[in-house]
Amino acid sequence: MGVTPTQQLLTLLSPERRRCAVVAALMTASVLGEVAVPYFMGHVTDWVASEDEVAAAWSMAVLGLSSAATEFACDVTYTGTLSRVLGRLQRRVFAAVLRWDVTSLQAMGTGAVTARVTGDVEATHAAVARVLNILLWYLARGVCLLVTMAWLSPRLAFVTLLSLPVLLLLPRGIGKIEQGLSRQVQEGLAGATKVAVETFQAMATVRSFAHEAGAAERYHQRRRHVYRLERKGAAIYAATVWASGFSALALKLGLLCYGAQLVATGTITTGDLVTFLIYQMQFAEALEVLLHYYPNMTKAMGSSEKIFEFLDQEEQVAPTKEPEPNIVRGHLQLEDVWFSYPEHQEPILKGVSLELRPGEVLAVVAPPGAGKSTLVSLVLCLRPPGAGRVLLDGHPLPACRHPHQRCQVAVVPQQPVLFSRSLHANIAYGPGSWSRAEVMGAARRAGAHTFITRLPLGYDTEVGELGGQLSGGQRQAVAIARALVRDPVVLVLDEPTSALDSESQLQVEQEIFGAARAGRAVLLVTGQVALAMRAQRVAVLEGGRLHELESPKELLRPGSRYWCLLQGGGQMG
Ligand SMILES: Nc1ncnc2c1ncn2[C@@H]1O[C@H](COP(=O)(O)OP(=O)(O)OP(=O)(O)O)[C@@H](O)[C@H]1O
Ligand SMILES: [Mg+2]
Predict the structure, then answer these.
(1) Quick check: 342 and 324 in contact, CB under 8 A?
(2) Are residues 258 and 358 in the same domain?
(3) Are residues 426 and 283 in the same domain?
(4) Which of 59, 120, 175, 235 could form a disulfide with 298 if both were Cys (CB 3.0 to 4.6 A apart)?
(5) What is the Cα–Cα distance from 405 to 388, expressed in whole angstroms?
(6) How far apart are CA 290 and CA 143, in angstroms?
(7) Coil, strand, or helix at residue 110?
(8) What residues pair up with 541 in beta bridges, in sequence order?
(9) Does residue 505 belong to any structural domain of this protein?
(10) What are residue 521's DSSP bridge partners?
(11) Residue whose CA is closest, atom 5 of ligand 1?
């Protein structure tokens, strides 16, 4: 993109221009006060001799106190400003991830994304909030001190300046190496987190296969790689500190010798030399701090680079601006849709076209692994098609649709995921609000009401992480209720009754086929022939292509396309 992380951070700061100006003014005032104090210290002997020490002491005290007060005000304003800016960054990164298509998210891995959103943003926050503050202070001090030193003795200041290239270029070069290393460490850490998250999610499998040691070893392998990189980073850091400390000491000695000569020749007074040396010591300290913290800052820039990559990708999948109709009729069309997963060369969908009109139930039948769930994810725009278009009421469905439209297309996924909150909140999920009566009505129609009322806390029962405290069938029933409560115009169902008991199954089937009469379009994706038989129209997904049958009865006719498919090795219920 050609935009550096520093420029990106500065762009983030731009809405806070006024506060930044206040910080700069306060910082300048405080630094000027600070820099004036050594002037009095250097000449204190002259004032003692002239019996004016009380005036000198007062001036020093007032300057010192005002400088401290402005420094305090500056730090408070700076911290407040930075918190706002970084809070905004965190929100943007989180929102960017939410807008990603599912394929990219899966390709990256949940662990890596989590590490990026929390760890990297936190690292940038810490660096910018603390390290940048220190760098700015010492940079302001350094510049002020250098100007004062030049005013006191241009020759000694010139000698100080001559040493600057060595003092500055060395850490800059090393900083570049550190930045690259920090990037590798972040990637390594994200890899380790990915392994940890995957292992914890599959805890039951790890235990039942007695593979705890193997899982731990896999994690340690990743950590060892990070450790090696960190050790390399520590060695480079130590070399930087040593090199900058040594060159600062050489400069001090040189100045002392040259200054003594200048005093001997009468070019400057002893008082001036003392003042200059105090300034020089402070300047060296400022430089040391700058050199010490600069690598930390470049390290943080390495982390922020990754964050900004996220934001760049956010721009790549930005929604196309299509007119948002207020009323969704529920006319769904797929036009020559192609799709393949990055891991597989062979496309899963090869030019699929379908049309679903309001008030219709279209069943798509296929054996396991034929691409039914993939088709559902495309209809929901969770994955962008490789080619072709998905249209709702004639409008292409962009990657991110208007919330109003999204609520009109409800889905019951094959593996429903619940959130760690109450059953009521899980059913009444999404924009909009539903009363307890509406939630209960939807749960009844989904066959979930009976089991919910048997729970001690009923609809207020917490379901645990990913709904882990419910059975598979209960999760499915709650997911159906969640789709029904919003009274959608298009209902997309992926094996909706596979885990339900026969009573709930009947209830849900009634809902599916009864809803169509009420004008709702239903796309029913299933491997169960008995369920598909009840739909008005049936299509078979075979070899990535969709073939519509003349009638549902054709599913069972010996010699039909589907019959042949089953003979070829498919499994069916
Ligand atoms: N996230 C993924 N990444 C790569 N390949 C995938 C992914 N999800 C599915 N596939 C592959 O795509 C093919 C179709 O999978 P899909 O889940 O769409 O089948 P399905 O018809 O829904 O199967 P089932 O009846 O078992 O639910 C499978 O061969 C599967 O291996
Ligand atoms: Mg599936």
Answers:
(1) no
(2) no
(3) no
(4) 175
(5) 21
(6) 12
(7) helix
(8) 546
(9) yes
(10) 490
(11) 341
Cα 443 to chain centroid, rounded: 35
Q: β-pairing, 537-542 with 349-356?
A: unpaired
| Cα–Cα distance for residue pair 509/237, rounded to 1 Å | 67
My answer on whether 312 and 371 are in the same domain is no
- Residue 525 CA: nearest ligand 1 atom is 22
- pLDDT tens-digit profile, the chain (573 residues): 456 767 777 777 788 888 888 888 888 888 888 887 777 766 665 665 565 666 666 777 787 788 888 888 888 888 888 888 878 887 888 888 887 777 777 777 777 777 777 777 777 777 777 788 888 888 888 888 889 889 888 888 888 888 777 767 776 677 778 778 888 888 888 888 888 888 887 776 777 677 788 888 889 998 998 899 889 888 887 877 777 677 777 777 888 888 888 888 888 888 788 888 888 888 888 887 887 787 777 777 776 777 777 777 655 444 555 545 567 777 888 899 999 988 788 899 998 999 888 888 899 988 888 889 999 988 887 888 888 888 888 877 754 455 666 677 888 888 888 888 899 999 998 777 889 999 999 999 888 898 899 999 999 998 887 788 888 888 989 999 999 888 888 889 998 888 777 777 787 788 788 765 678 889 999 888 888 888 888 888 888 888 877 777 777 777 666 666 666 544 444
Best residue for ligand 1 mutational test, from 105, 339, 341, 365 (most atoms within 8 Å of Cβ): 341
| Residue 509 counted as domain residue | yes
Residue nearest atom 9 of ligand 1, based on CA coordinates: 374
Q: Does a structural domain hold residue 121? A: yes
Measured in angstroms, how far is the CA atom of residue 476 from the centroid of ligand 2? 14
Q: How many domains is the chain built from? A: 2
What CATH number does residue 70 fall under? Answer: 1.20.1560.10
**CA distances to 17, 25, 27, 107, 143 from 21, in Å:** 6, 6, 10, 43, 18
In a domain, 148, yes or no: yes
The domain boundary residue, chosen from 260, 291, 316: 316
Task: Specify the CATH number for the domain of residue 352.
Answer: 3.40.50.300
Tell me which ligand sits closest to the C-alpha of residue 572: 1
CA distance 422 to 426: 6
The Cα–Cα gap between 342 and 112 comes to 18
Rounded distance between C-alpha atoms, residue 111 and residue 201, angstroms: 11
Q: Residue with the nearest Cα to atom 7 of ligand 1?
A: 341
Which of 316, 351, 375 terminates a domain? The answer is 316
Alpha carbons 455 and 55: distance in angstroms, whole number: 81
Q: What per-residue string of b and e applies to 107-120 under the rule 16 or more CB within 10 Å gives b?
A: ebbebbbbbbbebb
